[in-house]
């Protein structure tokens, strides 16, 4: 892992929560990434996630944004979770106000992040020069409108990442000449897992297993994804009362034991690791979650010859949505946003798989070469008249 440009630690004054803001790199003074809240968050994890964001912006063809991440080690379901998030974001406000664009991530809601920004009259964090740019200001207005729109019944912002993952999956599966109606197991049924499952079922895939924080539900003939979405709660937990009689419920730890062609982790990091990587039965893993395979687990997956679409190639939908609308790369229309993400996810996935085949190498190793970010400092923003000679 390369060293991050900036690491800031926060200690809450009212609880034992700790948090970190890690900026892996800036691009023209701007950087973007989500804010995660989970009891297992560590500084090292936030550093790894920030680096993945930097790669993801390169994979998104971004010319405006570097990668950062924030993480708070705290229970996202605690009654004071919002208050903890608020104190953390307020502590980070001097950076946010200058162009550290934090959004939401696992365990936080984008509406909550925006509500806290609004207390400081910040709509979307921007650099000082972006704040003067009428095209960017129009892009923000368009983004605000699009955030309230829906596609297939889902809020557009909740669909963009999962749909992109589904398009990457489809591209990779077709590249592998996989059979029609392939079976898929998904871990996690939040924004990403649910929308990915929906789009894949629309594309003709059979979702045979889904796990959430409480359970694993399976069905060889395929689960009714729409019905599961209609009855899930805000934490992405499915409602047992609406399961069909031919569904089987097991412990969520058994998710890798289900026979399937494709596995898609859409929840936490390092969930495929030394202890369970050997039991992966599929020939393709698509990483919807960030860093869902530990480095030890990855060695096993690589050795088994399983193909992967790695995280920053598959799950860039949300950041492409943001970049493309705010910086005017796409018409502000929900279907145009999805089409743009589909094009990018398919292009990058095809590039990854064709290069891997040509060079007879593992997809992840290739991805880290193709999408390598540059880390530059912020000296270009200093006042040139105050040049300080090296001592
Ligand atoms: N939301 C986005 O646009 C986006 C973009 C890129 C990457 N990601 C990554 O995707 C992942 C999921 O994000 P999200 O926004 O869908 O989160 P979310 O909070 O909406 O949903 C998380 C899901 O994971 C489930 N879960 C938690 N612990 C679990 C366990 N032990 N076993 C099985 N399931 C478990 C929860 O029940 C829930 O269904 C995260 O790694 C996040 O960083 C999200």
Written account of the structure:
The chain is an alpha/beta fold and 391 residues long. It has two domains: 6-130, Leucine Dehydrogenase, chain A, domain 1 (Rossmann fold), CATH 3.40.50.10860; 155-370, NAD(P)-binding Rossmann-like Domain (Rossmann fold), CATH 3.40.50.720. Helix content is 40%, strand content 16%. It has 14 helices and 14 strands. A seven-stranded mixed beta sheet has the order 11-10-9-8-12-13-14. Strand 13, helix 10 (295-303) and strand 14 form a beta-alpha-beta unit. Helix 2 (81-91) crosses helix 4, helix 7 crosses helix 12 (317-326) and helix 12 packs across helix 13 (334-359). The protein is globular. The model has no long low-confidence stretch (mean pLDDT 95).
Please state the second-level CATH architecture of the largest domain: 3-Layer(aba) Sandwich
**Weakly predicted, low-confidence segments:** none
Question: Tell me, what's the shape?
Answer: globular
The ligands found in this model are: nicotinamide-adenine-dinucleotide
Instruction: Describe the strand arrangement of the main beta sheet, using strand numbers.
Output: 11-10-9-8-12-13-14
**Quaternary arrangement of the chains shown?**
single chain
CATH class of the largest domain: Alpha Beta
Strand content: 15-25%
Q: How does the major sheet shape up? A: 7 strands, mixed
Could you give me the name of the CATH homologous superfamily of the largest domain? Answer: NAD(P)-binding Rossmann-like Domain
Q: Roughly how many Å apart are the termini? A: 31 Å
Query: What is the helical fraction, as a range of percent?
Result: 25-40%
Radius of gyration: 21 Å
Total count of helical runs of at least 4 residues: 14
How many domains, in number, for the residues? 2
Mean pLDDT value: 95
> What is the number of strand segments?
14
- The structure class reads alpha/beta
At the fold tier of CATH, the topology name of the largest domain is Rossmann fold
- Please write the string of helix (H) and strand (E) elements: EEEHEHHEHHHEEHEHEEHEEEHEHHHH
